[in-house]
Write a structure and sequence with these properties.
Layout (H helix, E strand, L loop, with lengths): L1 E5 L2 H12 L6 E6 L6 H11 L14 E4 L6 E5 L6 H6 L12 E5 L21 E9 L5 E9 L1
Helix pairs in contact: 1-2
């Protein structure tokens, strides 16, 4: 697992911008971490890096926000209010995972996928790529971001 430490919300957003440079259709970022850990900041940077210029906010109440107008569509899901896989499927959100139409970011991803267990984690989509990202708040501004890539 790789590790990055950011010391401000701006640095976390800048990481998202950097990751946008490697984005391709079918890429999913699975974000895990407590409330306020920086997940949405990363998504803001990712959207900016993809060329989206509008407002980016967590879709906690909407469940999914779609951002278009950039180099790739960005689908931002928030599973915080859903507890089970059945609820996620019932809400129609599973269709967004590994969509070839763009990049998907899933906040509270552990509600769909089990915690990553060594290298046996499987991406269940041909050509799909998953980046499992874990956020840990170490102080008011310092975040430890660990990530691992799976799939194509």
């Amino acid at each position: 697992m790789k590790e990055i430490v950011t010391n401000s919300p701006e640095e976390t957003a800048a990481l998202g911008e950097a990751w946008a440079r490697e984005a391709a259709p079918g890429w999913t970022l699975a974000l895990c971490g407590d409330l306020g850990a920086g997940k949405t900041q990363l998504v803001k940077g990712l959207a900016r890096g993809l060329g989206f210029t509008g407002r980016v906010a967590s879709p906690t109440f909407a469940l999914v926000n779609e951002y278009t107008g950039g180099s790739l569509p960005l689908f931002h899901l928030d599973l915080y209010r859903l507890d089970t896989r059945a609820q996620i499927v019932g809400a129609g959100l599973d269709e967004y995972f590994f969509t070839p139409r763009g990049v998907t970011v899933v906040e509270w991803a552990e509600r769909w996928w089990d915690e990553v267990q060594s290298s046996k984690f499987k991406v269940q989509s041909p050509g799909g790529r998953l980046r499992w990202v874990k956020f840990t708040s170490e102080s008011e501004t310092r975040r430890r971001i660990e990530y691992e890539d799976f799939g194509a």
